[in-house]
Amino acid sequence: MKILLRGGRVIDPSQALDMVADVLVSGDRIAAIGQDLETDRETKVIDVGGCIVAPGFIDMHVHLREPGYEQKETIATGTRAAAAGGFTAVACMPNTQPVADSPAVIAYIREKARAIGVVHVYPIGALSKGSQGEELAEIRDLVEAGAVALSDDGNPVMNAEVMRRALEYTRLFNIPVISHCEDLNLAAGGVMHEGFISTILGLRGIPAAAEEVMVARDIILAELTGGKLHLAHLSSAGSLRILQEAKSRGIKVTAEVTPHHLCLTDEAVEGYDTNTKVNPPLRSEEDRQALEEALREGLVDALATDHAPHTEEDKDVEYDVAPFGISGLETAIPLVVTRLVETGRLSWERLIEAWSCQPASILNIPGGTLKEGGIADITVIAPDWEKEVDVNTFYSLGKNSPFQGLKLKGWPLVTIVAGRLVMEKGQVLL
Ligand SMILES: NC(=O)N[C@@H](CC(=O)O)C(=O)O
Ligand SMILES: [Zn+2]
Ligand SMILES: [Zn+2]
To answer: Which CDD domains match (predicted)?
Structure first.
């Protein structure tokens, strides 16, 4: 099977490539990039004139919910949501039931993904047993089973000594520790950003400091141990100042931001829509602008959705008791394209670097490049394709999006995974 993507703007930051060209896929590999490539009768030709052709987007932070919470999402539905959203690979968080703290759960996820998934799935192992933050998980076993990183995401690691040992031990395997930075005592029962709006709405706030003190702590521990630290879903300007200082001193730390923290602020909570309830919370406009700038300049390395699907039942309750999370995979790319790329605040090159090259490099997984001979994971985006977000068309079981009804441009047009056409014009083909 061959596929020819004809006449797109091919942007591959890994090779400093930005030109109008054809891309030929043969089997599971990139066969050639060039002008007017020849085709034979077996080649499926897709006209991508006016579109962006990029190395496959990798979402390094998703919650697939399986095993245990299959009513929220499954590996089958979550990977289809990823393909529909323009992603060729996802890394999935271990806060399942049971928690992915054993080789058996990691193996289960990988096997299920191989059998019925439509994009690559890289499991992240739990850092501590049951993600309780007390006793380290069997890290060697998790890595041998295929975990690409360790995290207790969903929960912070409150015990600094446990975090220290995780950062120390993971050095042996050269994998990152992904930290959900939240001091639970400071966050204490909060449900949104602590500020003027939380006061007006009468909702309990989570101060930015709850994140920032943990960012500072984890960076200090990364320096102490030499371990690789990756900071998940950063939300505040203060976190970025600490990150800046750490990077300027050469500490091994990387960071990600989400589309929702780049596109919304705490003002979105004003209608008490529980789909705006997310952890960390949507923060102030000043924070949002700082995140945008940090992504643009490369202080923040990567974009990630933190796709956190929940059922309508889960979310159809009072703001105070609703679970945290946004179903993000199927709006992520058009949100960032519409708000940041089309407005000239983020280049295509930087977008692709942050959502393809960097995640591959941070997790040390295949992808992030269109090099000839490499695996054919490709994302095509149609910058001019405009349509409204409709959660009813999501492949994800999680319809919990605060972006319902929003008109966006720059939808993903084609997703190719290991040479297989898995999505065309928004329709998943497998
Ligand atoms: N981000 C969220 O609001 N929710 C995540 C947990 C997490 O990423 O911390 C979830 O698992 O639902
Ligand atoms: Zn988290
Ligand atoms: Zn998460």
So the answer is: DHOase_IIa
